[in-house]
Amino acid sequence: MVETARSLAVAVNSHPVVRILLGSRCSVSLIVWSLVGCILMIHFYSLIHQKDREKIHIGSSHLSVTRELEEVEEESLYFPPPRGKRSPHALKRRGPRKPPSVIDEFLDESSEVHALFFPHRKSAVNPNKKGNDSMYYYPGRLWLDTEGNPIQAHGGGILFDERTETYYWYGENKDGPTYQAHRKGAARVDIIGVSCYSSKDLWEWTNEGIVLSGEETNASHDLHVSNVLERPKVIYNDVSDRYVMWMHIDDANYTKASVGVAVSDSPTGPFTYLYSFRPHGFDSRDMTVFKDDDGKAYLIYSSEDNSELHIGPLTDDYFNVTRVMRRILVGQHREAPALFKYQGTYYMITSGCTGWAPNRALAHAAESIMGPWETMGNPCIGGNKIFRSATFFAQSTYVVPLLGLPGSFIFMADRWNPSELRDSRYVWLPLTVGGMADEPLEYNFGFPLWSRVSIYWHRRWRLPEGWWRTA
Question: So which residues are the signal peptide here (predicted)?
Fold first, then answer.
């Protein structure tokens, strides 16, 4: 009986719960502090990885939206038949008239086709009206600023200022009457100046005013109202801490064919105009500037009567070009260059030379910005055959890299309205790089190793929600 009791006592004392209950205060404290330590470790872990989870969330949202934007959206517009009939006498005298093309109808302000591509102000994109359309881009619709006025920034470009974490949109202000300087002259608006708009999200834009104004009294000045100022672009010089603007400067007959340079201490100006010149001694019309990752900047311009493009580095202060220059796309008659870089490869979108009329865009690529450049074909996807052959009835002006969304870009283009240039519209569309190019290289007929550039048509689209918070 005694032996049984002893065995039972040993068994009870050896049970873990009983041992804890019978243990010292030191053992209890050790357990409590262990639990506290575990809780603190979990808390610190959650704090450390909170941003990572946010990035993963944004990234997954970006992927889902990107897949949505890369879906091919077809367009089945009805184009009315040509208007009017010719008299029998005219038929005998000149023969049957060739029916107007869709492009002809697009350019004719009295045409029903024209109205399809320049919808009424009632459908304008208005940032002051919050709702289901908030943050959505509608290519071709009138786009209003935060004051409710149409944005005037044609042929423009975007600068992201890291210090203020703000995007600045510079472009031509064409809010004046359209006219022809002479009977065979192109449609024009007197120089008003370069407008600047600011935004945190690339959708809601605040008017910062005219940062470089036209000159009204001095007829010999490059910026006299009778001259031409087109395609202004601004880049920031990290060394001098100044903002430098380059633009196409010309006379009413487009014979001056020069570039102009202006500078400012602030992204919102005012910019001080310095001078104009012909880069490398050649005529220069449509142009752009590109700042590379290493801080070096380059000028790219159409030359030799728009038959080829020239490219060359700028000086360290960005006020001039160096003596180095390369001819690219010789004999291809390309203009409206828009450059961007992705994974070490340089890409460029260009337009054909057809005045105000839209035409087929081409994508080009190079391993070095100085070339050689290869042509990869039409980057436009979706819409319909006519849309793709006319770059969605628009012309390239800039490609915006989206900070916080690596590999994502916005293709910026202008839908020109030569009958009323102030009513020209903006066509912003998603651009991606990926997949095989659809045209062989120019010289060896092989396909390039770099990826295809694709611009996707959408009537209505948006960027991932909250994308700019990761920029």
Answer: none
